[in-house]
Automatic annotation (TrEMBL):
The gene is Dnah5_3. GO terms for molecular function: dynein intermediate chain binding; dynein light intermediate chain binding. Pfam families: DHC_N1 (PF08385). This is DYH5 protein. It comes from Spizaetus tyrannus (black hawk-eagle). It comes from the Eukaryota. GO terms for biological process: microtubule-based movement. One of its GO terms (cellular component) is axonemal dynein complex. Residues 5-167 form the Dynein heavy chain tail domain.
């Protein structure tokens, strides 16, 4: 019972820390008003990396040993642990999926940032088709909030590119 109690305390600390990570990941991001679409990809890459690290830690032999000891002791903390483990897996899958879909836009970010307005406009139909494909097929990225944020960033990039073009000319 003593060992079980100590291990339960350790797991409760982990649960608290993991909950904090999940809460922070769901909070609104504060971004500059003129930020471009590559920042969206970078955000999801960072989120994927952090959740994958967390999953690696959860799957480590040390953590597995502690969880199996608590399972043998029929600990009540395991219900919370399993729920959080599932939530972390969902968050990691979401980030991985969003990175995969946003990478399909990556080829447009260069032309969007460096081209003349005329050249940039040649890329817009393909870009919008790709955005539409993401909206129609992504299980996580197809919300109005995510699409609005992405389209706003694409628009910001187009405006910034046009401003730079006008200032050079």
């Amino acid at each position: 019972p003593e060992v079980t109690e100590k291990l339960e305390k350790v797991v409760m600390i982990w649960i608290k820390q993991i909950r904090q990570v999940l809460v922070e990941s769901e909070q609104m991001r504060r971004e500059a008003d003129d930020i471009g679409p590559s920042a969206e990809l970078e955000h999801w890459k960072a989120r994927m990396s952090s959740f994958n690290s967390l999953l690696d830690e959860i799957k480590s032999s040390r953590v597995k040993k502690i969880i199996s000891i608590l399972q043998a002791a029929r600990s009540k903390t395991l219900k919370q642990w399993k729920e959080l483990d599932g939530n972390i897996t969902i968050a990691a899958n979401e980030a991985k999926d969003n990175v995969r879909y946003l990478y399909t836009l990556d080829k447009f970010f260069g032309p969007l940032a460096k081209a003349s307005p005329v050249t940039m406009m040649e890329h817009v139909p393909s870009l919008m088709n790709t955005v539409c494909m993401i909206y129609c097929t992504s299980p996580y990225y197809n919300t109005s909030e995510r699409m609005t944020s992405l389209l706003l960033k694409i628009t910001n990039q187009m405006i910034n590119t046009c401003k730079m073009y006008l200032c050079e000319g």
